[in-house]
Amino acid sequence: MNEEKIIVGAKTKYPLNGLLCIPNETNGLIPAVVLVHGSGPSTMDGRVGENYPFRDIAEGLSARGIATIRYDKRTLVYGKQMKHDKDLSVKEETIEDAILATELLRQDPRIDSNKLFIIGHSLGGMLAPRIDAEGGNFAGVIILGGSPRTLEEIMMDQNTEVLNSLNKFLKMIAGKQLAKMSSKFDGMYNMTDEEAQQTIVLGKYVTAYYFKEMGEHPASQYVSELDKPLLILQGEKDFQVTAETDFEGYKNLLCNKPNVTFTLYPNLNHLFMPSIYGTVIKAKKEYNVPQHVDQKVLDDIADWIHSVFN
Length: 310
What we know:
With 310 residues, this protein is an alpha/beta fold. It has 12 helices and 10 strands.
């Protein structure tokens, strides 16, 4: 494969370094994929601990005849200035750059502009149908470890699981903090945008508006309205979103739609790598073990992309 340095949003306020990965051997125009990060600041390789899932996916798809574009996330590069933006939403954090990256692919004469796909991981997977609707205009959408639920629901579940693993004293302290967060989430949809922008719900800077704006553009609605090919993949041992709640949630929501393909992978975690500890309380320890995205996952993604036009 060949990796070429690119700039996403070169003429904008937030230019981002990235890589375009092109297969060595090509036969005509190449299908291509935009890789979209999960939550939090992230490198173009999607680094989590000692793992680099986006690099794995880029290299794996290139070996299977598919180009990819990946880039540093805006909040990684410009987080210090963006943390003061009270009106920050997933639009500025994620959606705008994904669409700009797609436009770069459309302008490349080696790429088949009719065969552009999006792979969204985690939060990026939740947003992928919205990115498609707001300007991505992809041939198909791939969701890795996503959810049809709201972000605050997922966060509350994750925090509750951590809470339940603590000793009695710590559980009491953490329980009060969790109840306080929950009360802010409960009331935010009754707030005006301005009120939500002034209400801190996480750390020192994350406002209720971030969650409110995303919740008012429900992932469940976008994915339900999607009528193009959709591939939903989930690791059975994922402890950040779960097979029982999130994967089954997608299946219940979309079970009657012929455009959707579902695959659940035994013993794979949120990064689509072998599960080691399998609990959210040991997430850091799990992700500090260097691993790679499972080859079966890469095979399935590539086969699905190639099958869309066959």
